[in-house]
């Protein structure tokens, strides 16, 4: 325990951290690739893995392991476990766990007094040095959560920025009022965006600004252009899900992964774009997206196919 506390103290000298979460007894093999990819672009920040006590971590995974059972369970978390309508058996409890992870994330940030936390889902590949993006987050997302918005009342939280504990407390308080409604994490976070937009949560840019003007959005009537939020400041785009699904295919749980899959509920259509890969000065492959003469770097890809090795930068 003393050794872990010393490691945490040393890493806290770096202002930001990356957090992966897996609930359940078996750590998926592809998670090691996601961690390795994140480390490829972020060499000094701490990378944590919150996991259940019974889960066996692959050797040499390169994370700081935090057992979920070591975290002080909040009253919101206890209420969720007692009242949730999410099925704990269907898909091995997938929707139950995708929501419960946010309770553990809140408890972890609270217990270790963290700021500038980046939470990545286990099938998300990171292609950016987050330290380079921190000035933008500090300027435009101060005291807030930043998340990838996919459609009206729908947010896919594959890449999430959390400034500090305060917006997380607000997020979980909002969920506490909806705990019996059988909503997925994408739905209740999407509704939190509509309810507390630019107060406790804001969207990350997932689209070129001129896409909405020249092509238009599907299934979405929001008045502001929250899909291109702070596009100029980031000078890059994030992937909610649709890009990674188009490049790698849908999740094998639903279909055989085949590239070219178009997300049927996304507000935008990824086949309208062209994608290219470039190699940087360190020999790392990085994805770019092109649309009507514009070309931007992609900061992350959400690889639903789980074939993460195909999208590894080396």
Largest sheet: 7 strands, mixed
Give the second-level CATH assignment, the architecture.
Answer: Alpha-Beta Complex
Strand content: 15-25%
| Number of separate strands | 13
**Rounded radius of gyration (Å):** 19 Å
CATH class: Alpha Beta
- Domains, number: 1
For this structure, the CATH topology is Spore Coat Polysaccharide Biosynthesis Protein SpsA, Chain A
Question: Percent of residues in helical segments?
Answer: 25-40%
Summarize it:
By secondary structure, this protein is an alpha/beta fold. The chain has one domain (10-235): Spore Coat Polysaccharide Biosynthesis Protein SpsA, Chain A (Alpha-Beta Complex), CATH 3.90.550.
Structural notes for this entry:
The chain is α/β, with parallel strands linked by helices. The model has no long low-confidence stretch (mean pLDDT 92). It has 10 helices and 13 strands.
List the helices and strands and how they pair.
Blueprint (H helix, E strand, L loop, with lengths): L1 H10 L5 E6 L7 H12 L5 E5 L12 E4 L7 H9 L10 H19 L4 E4 L3 E3 L3 H11 L4 E7 L2 E9 L2 H12 L8 H12 L4 E3 L5 H6 L16 H4 L1 E2 L4 H7 L25 E6 L5 E7 L2 E5 L1 E3 L12
Parallel strand pairs: 1-2, 1-4, 2-3, 6-8, 9-12
Antiparallel strand pairs: 4-7, 5-13, 6-7, 10-11, 11-12
Helix pairs in contact: 4-6
Please supply descriptive tags for the structure shown above:
single chain; 314 residues; alpha/beta; Spore Coat Polysaccharide Biosynthesis Protein SpsA, Chain A; 7-stranded mixed beta sheet; 4-stranded mixed beta sheet
């Amino acid at each position: 325990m003393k050794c872990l506390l010393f490691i945490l103290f040393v890493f806290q000298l770096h202002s930001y951290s990356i957090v992966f979460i897996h609930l359940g007894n078996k750590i998926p093999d592809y998670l090691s690739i996601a961690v390795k990819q994140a480390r490829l672009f972020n060499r000094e920040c701490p990378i944590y893995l919150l996991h259940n006590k019974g889960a066996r971590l692959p050797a040499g995974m390169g994370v700081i392991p935090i057992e979920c059972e070591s975290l002080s369970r909040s009253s919101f978390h206890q209420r969720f476990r007692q009242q949730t309508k999410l099925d704990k058996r269907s898909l091995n409890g997938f929707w139950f766990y995708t929501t419960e992870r946010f309770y553990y994330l809140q408890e972890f940030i609270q217990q270790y007094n963290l700021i500038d936390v980046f939470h990545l889902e286990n099938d998300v590949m990171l292609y950016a040095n987050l330290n380079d993006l921190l000035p933008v987050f500090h300027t435009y997302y101060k005291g807030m959560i930043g998340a990838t918005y996919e459609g009206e009342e729908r947010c896919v939280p594959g890449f999430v920025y959390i400034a500090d504990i305060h917006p997380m407390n607000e997020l979980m308080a909002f969920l506490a009022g909806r705990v019996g409604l059988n909503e997925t994490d994408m739905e209740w976070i999407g509704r939190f965006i509509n309810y507390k937009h630019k107060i406790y949560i804001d969207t990350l840019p997932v689209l070129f600004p001129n896409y909405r003007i020249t092509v238009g959005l599907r299934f979405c009537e929001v008045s502001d252009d929250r899909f291109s939020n702070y596009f100029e400041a980031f000078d890059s785009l994030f992937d909610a899900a649709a890009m990674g699904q188009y490049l790698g295919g849908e999740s094998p749980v639903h279909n055989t992964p085949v590239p070219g899959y178009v997300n049927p509920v996304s507000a935008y259509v990824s086949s309208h774009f062209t994608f290219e890969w470039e190699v940087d000065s360190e020999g790392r492959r990085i994805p770019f997206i092109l649309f009507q003469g514009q070309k931007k770097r992609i900061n992350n890809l959400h690889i639903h196919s789980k074939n993460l090795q195909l999208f590894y930068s080396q």
